[in-house]
Design brief:
Largest sheet of chain B: 8 strands, mixed
Number of domains of chain B: 4
Radius of gyration of chain A: 16 Å
Strand content of chain A: 5-15%
Radius of gyration of chain B: 36 Å
Distance between the termini of chain A: 44 Å
Number of helices of chain B: 26
Shape of chain A: globular
Number of domains of chain A: 1
Oligomer: heterodimer
Structural class of chain A: mainly alpha
CATH architecture of chain A: Orthogonal Bundle
Order of helices and strands of chain A: HHEHHEEH
Number of helices of chain A: 5
């Protein structure tokens, strides 16, 4: 399905959960539990997606065409048949990039206003 | 885990099916990672909150999605959307309007404290009707009753208010001090009358209505304590009532305390006290009725001359309206329900037809994996959206049209004269709307999910099976049936209206202008003063260009029904309640000529019929016939409360009590023979003028003349005689107009229903029609095929419809003014209209059928 720039703009800014899920499936296909784990790892445990939030987001993202469900499954000994695997779509990548650009610009603007982050 | 799975039921089915297993597995992992005890409790609490919040969010997502989809599909088929919304709006609008008025008049609690316990007490004579109480009877009921915690008396007064701009003629109410506290009302500002006022006979105080206060005193709170002239007497304004206080009726503009002379009046045969009472706690209205009748019986025994055969009637304040007004409103609601029924049937048919057309789309979606539950939900959302938009439009129609129905509010109730739509009616409208949406959304939705054999996907399949066709036909039959009931009912009411309108009132209505110049007492107690006034005004008016005649009379016909006095003639005595009575009016000469009432024998009253001459009377034909049957009544004498009178003339009868009611025989007395202030209520005060000059030109000139004769006199009730007569039928006319409008809607909807069904039948039978044509069928045969179906449908609806219409006519017979409920003309007209409706509904489908080209049909195969 061809998506235009306006389709992308319509989705931006992304809800944080959606952006995290996109990042989680950007590099490799993941199932629900895998996504939750990945988000926890990347945020040092600050964000723990609940099952409800995850699947509600997944359902909407599937409808919006940000991710696809994939039939490629890992080796049977590593698989659980209840699991479903998701991967980012081309449109999802475009949207995630647009969101990254938006946030980068925002950060840059904040910096020019002297709003430097505190040193950890 | 079982509990978690149960919690998942909060999500939409489709979502649960899709993700339930994985969510359970995830939760399972978390449970295993959590330590027992406090940690587990926290997990569970957090999970419950999380599931509830997310389930609501998913439902919201689904709703938003369905709403978007609905808007898209409705925009894609605007014809369907507009028809469905309009049909719903008409159904809901008609019902909201009708029930708002009915609720306002019949159901809504009156704005008084504990209003269900308030009753009115009447004297009930042996025949039909009821009287006010005589003051001594009222006092006896009050002192002997054990049923009421309080009782009060009041009567209407007519008051000239002078000194506040132009003099005004107002309706007031004089009451005992108990009435207002009994109603449980408080003044907006100031105070009410107290028992102390009554004891000290301190009756120079007045309480104003909100309307009068705003209109005449500019809503200024400083009016409290101000002096005003009421009928020439100074009175002090002590209070203002709130805006929604109307008692005893909406036209009452002020309240005064009833003076002792009236409270202690001793005439047991003069009934003019209205009485209101509050039932004691625990006493039922039946008990009160029984007790009042015991008192009535003892009064009849003690005062047989005045009270023989007189019982007591106790009626709740809410029920103080004629059965005719009640019936009119009930008929209106019945008609509205018919419209709703037709609208619902039409909507159901539209939705079914649409679901058949969309069958392919729905089956494709099923085949692509959309859950049935999602489809059902989608269709339900669609019909709810249609119902909601239609309902909102309907309520808007109702809110704008309800004030137009104010004529249907009877003036006998303590209510404002304009009905309003209140929250309760809106809630009912919303419920009806939702029910309409759900009921008629479920039907096609269930059908859509019924079987998933994907038959529609097979090329050439023709949708619309036998069972569904039967349901659709049944719906159309119901529409036809209900519209027949409405057509016949409105026809009967129209005939009744035209019959009432063509009733001869006994006088000419055209070219007569009337107005009231009430003469205050005691200034006008003297005959000389009164006669001077009449002469000045009448001479002045008659001299105006375009005026042919003018006269004064006590009351115009149809504006006051009372003034009935006993007649003792040919040696037969009367007690007034036995039907030997007549209505009395004092008149100046030329009253009959001015009104166009024919003089049948003898003469008019004349200037020579003065106070020192024998009393004379002009009587109506029915009077002469009743009391002097077979004789020439002129020169005969009879007795009445005014003394012995000699008949000098006989005139035509007039409808004193109005077009629809039976009137007593009439007698007219000479204005010069009204002795001093006797019967002050009957002082001629209504001026009638026969003129060719237009009213707009005449009235200012007459005002000037009256003002010159007495600058303090208000002129009120300026109206043409024609409008007084047409006011008689105004309520009826409004009701008939509304019901005719309902019938027109019904007629239109039923025709649309027939059209829809036949059009669909033709499109599904295209193939058959093509084959028939290819085999040589004539166009006539094809037309017959389609029309036959329409005629069968119409007949199936018309036959039971006629039976129902007859039953409806029977129940509203008392509204029909003698038109038979089985009136042949009406039924024939309704049947003819049904033929037109069927033909109109069949027209387009027939055209489409005869245009079927066999070749195209076969090419499509």
């Amino acid at each position: 399905m061809a998506h235009s720039q306006s389709d992308i703009s319509a989705l931006i800014p992304l809800p944080p959960a959606t952006f995290h899920i996109l990042m989680a499936v950007a590099q490799e296909d993941r199932h629900g539990y895998g996504i939750i784990q990945d988000v926890i790892r990347r945020t040092n445990g600050e964000l723990k997606l609940s099952a409800g939030t995850l699947y509600r987001s997944v359902q909407r993202m599937l409808e919006q065409g940000l991710i696809d469900e994939t039939d490629d499954r890992p080796a049977p000994e590593l698989d659980d048949e209840r699991r479903r695997y998701y991967r980012i779509s081309a449109f999802g990548t475009a949207v995630a990039r647009a969101e990254t650009r938006r946030m980068t610009q925002l950060v840059r603007m904040a910096r020019t206003q002297g709003l430097l982050p505190e040193r950890a | 885990m079982r509990f978690y799975r149960a919690l998942l039921h909060l999500y939409p089915i489709s979502f649960r099916r899709e993700y339930g297993a994985e969510m359970s597995a995830l939760f399972d992992v978390r449970v295993r990672q959590t330590s027992r005890g406090f940690g587990m409790m926290v997990l569970w609490l957090a999970t419950i909150v999380e599931v509830i919040a997310n389930a609501a969010a998913v439902h919201w997502d689904v709703l938003r999605h369905d709403l978007r989809y609905t808007v898209r599909t409705l925009v894609r088929s605007p014809g369907f959307a507009l028809t469905a919304i309009l049909v719903t709006a008409l159904g809901i609008g008609a019902n909201t309007a009708a029930f708002s008025v009915a609720d306002f008049v019949l159901l809504r609690p009156l704005p008084f404290a504990d209003p269900d316990r308030l009753v009115k007490l009447w004297e009930s004579p042996p025949g039909p009707g009821r009287f006010e109480l005589s003051p001594p009877n009222y006092r006896d009921y009050e002192s002997q009753n054990k049923s009421f915690s309080a009782m009060g008396a009041f009567h209407n007064t007519s008051v000239n208010l002078v000194g506040q701009g132009d003099p005004q003629r107002l309706t007031g109410s004089a009451m005992t001090a108990d009435v207002m506290p009994m109603l449980g009302v408080k003044p907006l500002i100031g105070r009410l009358f107290t028992a102390e006022d009554q004891q000290k006979d301190n009756y120079g105080n007045v309480v104003l209505s909100y309307g009068l206060w705003q209109r005449t005193f500019g809503g200024d709170a400083a009016v409290l304590g101000q002096r005003v002239l009421l009928n020439g007497d100074p009175s002090v304004i002590i209070g203002i009532m709130p805006r929604d206080f109307h008692f005893p009726t909406a036209e009452t503009a002020m309240w005064t305390l009833m003076p002792r002379s009236e409270r202690e009046n001793d005439e047991r045969d003069n009934t003019w006290f209205q009485s209101i009472a509050r039932l004691k706690p625990g006493v039922s209205i039946e008990q009160a009725r029984a007790q009042m009748n015991v008192i009535a019986a003892s009064l009849a025994q003690r005062y047989p001359k005045d009270n023989k055969g007189i019982g007591a009637a106790v009626i709740t304040l809410r029920d103080e309206l004629s059965t005719q007004s009640q019936l009119m409103l009930i008929a209106l609601c019945g008609a509205a329900i018919c419209v709703l029924l037709i609208a619902c049937a039409n909507l159901a048919n539209l939705l079914i037809a649409r679901s058949l057309v969309r069958r392919r789309e729905l089956d494709v979606r099923l085949a692509l994996g959309a859950g049935r539950e999602r489809l059902v939900r989608q269709l339900m959302t669609e019909s709810l959206v249609i119902a909601a938009i239609g309902g909102a439009l309907g309520v808007a129609i109702a809110v704008t049209s309800v004030p137009l129905l104010s004529r249907l509010v009877p003036n006998s109730l303590p209510l404002a004269d304009t009905p309003t739509v209140d929250l309760r009616v809106l809630v009912v409208a919303a419920l009806v709307t939702a029910l309409t949406g759900i009921a008629f959304g479920v039907f096609p939705a269930l059908r859509a999910s019924g079987k998933g054999d994907l038959s529609a996907l097979r090329e050439g399949s023709r949708s619309g099976g036998g069972r569904r066709a039967r349901v659709r036909s049944a719906l159309v039959v119901v529409e036809v049936m209900a519209s027949v009931v409405l057509l016949v009912s409105s026809g009967l009411l129209l005939r009744a209206l035209s019959r009432v309108e063509s009733t001869d009132p006994g006088f000419q209505t055209d070219g007569i202008v009337t107005m009231r110049t009430a003469l205050p007492r005691p200034q006008y107690d003297s005959n000389t003063v009164r006669e001077q006034f009449y002469h000045r005004v009448l001479d002045g008016v008659k001299a105006l260009p375009g005026v042919q005649n003018a006269a004064y009379v006590s009351f115009l016909p149809m504006t006051m029904g009372g003034g009935i006095f006993p007649v003792e003639a040919n040696g037969v005595p009367s007690n007034g309640a036995d039907g030997r009575n007549a209505s009395v009016r004092y008149a100046t000469p030329a009253y009959f000529a001015t009104m166009g009432i024919p003089i049948r024998a003898g003469r008019d009253v004349e200037e020579t019929d003065e106070i020192n001459r024998p009393q004379v009377a002009v009587v109506s034909e029915s009077f002469a016939k009743k009391y002097f049957p077979g004789e020439n009544a002129v020169t005969k004498s009879f007795k009445t409360t005014m003394g012995e009178l000699e008949i000098v003339g006989v005139v035509g009868d007039i409808k004193v009590r109005g077009l629809e009611r039976t009137s007593e025989p009439q007698m007219y007395l000479s204005y010069r023979q009204q002795r001093g202030p006797s019967f002050p209520f009957f002082m001629p005060k209504d001026l009638v003028i026969r003129a060719t000059a237009p009213m707009a030109q005449l009235v200012p000139a007459v005002r000037r003349i009256v003002h010159e004769a007495d600058p303090t006199l208000p002129i009120s009730s300026v109206q043409s005689m024609a409008s007084i007569v047409s006011d008689q039928t105004a309520t009826r006319a409004v009701q008939v107009r509304v019901i005719v409008a309902f019938a027109a809607i019904a007629f239109f909807l039923a025709a649309v229903g027939i059209h829809g069904l036949l059009a669909f039948a033709v499109s599904t039978r295209k193939h058959e029609i093509g084959v028939r044509m290819a085999l040589g069928a004539q166009r006539g045969a094809i037309v017959g095929l389609v029309v036959r179906q329409g005629v069968v449908l119409a007949l199936c609806g018309v036959i039971p419809g006629i039976a129902l219409a007859y039953a409806a006519g029977k129940t509203m017979q008392s509204l029909l003014f003698g038109v038979e409920p089985g009136d042949a003309v009406t039924f024939a007209a309704a049947a003819a209209l049904c033929v037109v409706m069927t033909l109109a509904g069949s027209l387009l489908p027939v055209l489409r059928a005869v245009r079927v080209a066999p070749a195209t049909v076969f090419r499509g195969e």
